[in-house]
Specification:
- The longest helix has 29 residues.
- A hairpin with a 4-residue loop joins strand 3 and strand 4.
- The chain has 9 helices and 4 strands.
- A 4-stranded mixed sheet has the order 2-1-3-4, covered by helices on one side.
- The protein has 224 residues and is mainly alpha-helical.
- The chain is globular.
């Protein structure tokens, strides 16, 4: 099978996992290009094609260019409608989009904020315990909502894995490496059962790789 296009990304990145997982379940091949962060994305050839110079990025065999992981994954899934990744009708498709946006904005958005706070990512280099607490509480609210929704379901929308499940699994894997330690994960058994179900699917297990979950949430060093 000829590749549907070329992908620039790194395997550990959740967005790259979305795309490769969608391709694997759809039975499609993607040509993964060698990528070295800070080198490849700063080359004139890369910037000329992808001016934002971020990953993941995709170029189809016909020259069609896309960026943003969920958008690329959705395009890949759309090439194999029989896969069920995008649902079987317009209502299921809308629900899949709903959960993708929810996972990325209502869970992962807060994961990234906590990581940026702890790692002094912001220009001021200052850590705020009150902001950290507020962000964590907002993520907690979203996770409680998700936990209830997964109480009676194996998957988010249909009876099989959709793109929404893939995106959520990537988001939860990232959260469990940053904001959700052992104690926090114990509060969401349905969420982590869903993660194990999706990430453990034989078709995409190797793409998700080892969980590498943290024992306790990341925190600023005591001497900072």
């Amino acid at each position: 099978m000829a590749p549907i296009g070329s992908l620039w990304g790194v395997p550990r990145q959740r967005q790259t996992k979305y795309i490769l997982s969608a391709a694997a379940i759809a039975g499609l091949e993607v040509d993964q290009k060698p990528f070295e962060f800070g080198v490849t994305n700063k080359s004139p050839e890369f910037v000329d094609k992808f001016p934002l110079a971020k990953i993941p990025t995709f170029e189809g065999e016909d020259g069609f260019v896309l960026l943003e992981g969920a958008s690329i994954a959705r395009y890949v899934a759309s090439l194999a409608p029989e896969s069920g990744l995008l649902g079987n009708n317009i209502k299921e498709a809308a629900l899949i989009d709903q959960w993708i946006h929810f996972a990325e904005h209502e869970i992962n958005g807060y994961t990234d904020l906590v990581w940026q706070l702890v790692e002094r990512f912001f220009q001021e280099k200052a850590y705020s315990e009150s902001i950290h607490k507020t962000v964590f509480e907002r993520q907690e609210r979203s996770l409680k909502f998700l936990e209830q929704n997964l109480k009676l379901r194996e998957f988010l929308v249909t009876d099989e894995i959709t793109l929404a499940d893939i995106v959520l699994a990537g988001v939860i894997q990232r959260a469990a490496r940053v904001t959700l330690g052992v104690a926090e994960r114990a509060l969401y058994p349905n969420v982590f059962a869903h993660y194990a179900r999706v990430a453990g699917d034989p078709r995409i297990k190797d793409i998700f790789g080892a969980a590498d979950f943290v024992e306790v949430p990341v925190a600023p060093k005591k001497d900072e």
